[in-house]
Every structure is written in structure tokens, then in C-alpha cells.
Design brief:
By secondary structure, the protein is α+β, with helices and mostly antiparallel strands. The chain contains 3 helices and 9 strands.
């Protein structure tokens, strides 16, 4: 049971406001390294977009059928067993920025394609740390024990944030008794 002497009030803040005070200062070299990684990530996204735009502009078949956003509302609930769709199935749903309906599919998530997982919970509200605003959402799922441990570009991170999964990237498994 939490400490009963603590009573939240209007002046209590989220820990997010204190990150700068809690974190150790980083060196100039580390700042340069992180800037390099951001630039690299930005460049990869731009090149991916240009390749997509070039193919779309000059291809004979200008069908955008692979970019349709199939909204298969399966209403996944906590405890449901799901299979993460294959890389080809998910790739067909993503736009040139590797996103679907604003939700990015991170490079580190590809290793889970084809695996069976358990739904932890649905995401209905979340804090956007960039804008410090609460947002509502539909179709986002958290899966048990699947969380980010860092990115390829920036390295290891100990925050252990859960990945956001779109419902469209998951198939509900039917229990066979």
C-alpha cells in the first residue's frame, strides 16, 4: 500500500519535470555524438521518403493499395494471446516514414514479427513528452514484456518504455481446446 501520508494536490508534478535535475551532465563529445545520431536518423528517413516518392513518380503501376490503412478493430483485451504479423504484412501497412496512423514501427520491433505475445493493456491516454500534453488514442496496444531497451542509433537506455503496437499489426489467436 502506498504511503498514506502523501496526498496529491494541484502543485504535485510528474517526474518528467525533474529529468534535467536528476540526470548527470553530459560531455561536449556526447552532445556531438547524439547530434550526429539525430542527423543520421533524420537523413535515413528523408532518403527513404525520396526513394518512395521516386518509385511512385516513375513507376508504371501507381496503385497505392499497399498504403491502405485496414482498420481491423479486433478489440484486443488484457490477457489475450496475439501473434505479431510478419514483416511483409506490417511493411505493407506502413507509410514511407515507417508509420501507420501516426504510430512509428521502430527498427528494434522487427525481431518480434511472427512471435506470439500476450496483451498487457490498451492505451487510451498517454503523455507526449515532447509537448508535455496528455493525448487520447485508439487502436494502441501494449504487449507484456516487450519494451524498448534503446535504439540502434543512440544505444542502450534504461527507462524500459513499452512499445506502442497498432491493432492492425497483431492477430488475435483463438484458443483451441
Amino acid at each position: 500500500m502506498p504511503n498514506s501520508s502523501y496526498a496529491p494536490n494541484a502543485t504535485s508534478k510528474c517526474q518528467l519535470y525533474f529529468y534535467k535535475e536528476v540526470a548527470d551532465p553530459i560531455s561536449t563529445l556526447e552532445i556531438i555524438w547524439q547530434f550526429r545520431n539525430r542527423l543520421k536518423s533524420f537523413s535515413k528517413r528523408r532518403l527513404r521518403y525520396l526513394r518512395y516518392y521516386w518509385r511512385k513518380l516513375f513507376s508504371k503501376d501507381r496503385d497505392d493499395s499497399n498504403q491502405t490503412k485496414a482498420s481491423m478493430r479486433e478489440d484486443l483485451n488484457p490477457g489475450d494471446r496475439v501473434r505479431v504479423k510478419s514483416q511483409q504484412e506490417i511493411q505493407a501497412l506502413l507509410n514511407p516514414w515507417q508509420e501507420q496512423n501516426g504510430c512509428a514501427f521502430m527498427e528494434e520491433m522487427w525481431i518480434y514479427c511472427g512471435t506470439e505475445q500476450v496483451v498487457k493493456k490498451r492505451v487510451e491516454k498517454f503523455l507526449d513528452e515532447a509537448t508535455l500534453r496528455m493525448h487520447t488514442s485508439k487502436g494502441l496496444i501494449l504487449l507484456e514484456d516487450l519494451f524498448c531497451e534503446g535504439t540502434i542509433d543512440f544505444g542502450r537506455c534504461d527507462r524500459s518504455c513499452y512499445y506502442f503496437w497498432r491493432e492492425e499489426w497483431l492477430e488475435k489467436l483463438v484458443d483451441q481446446e
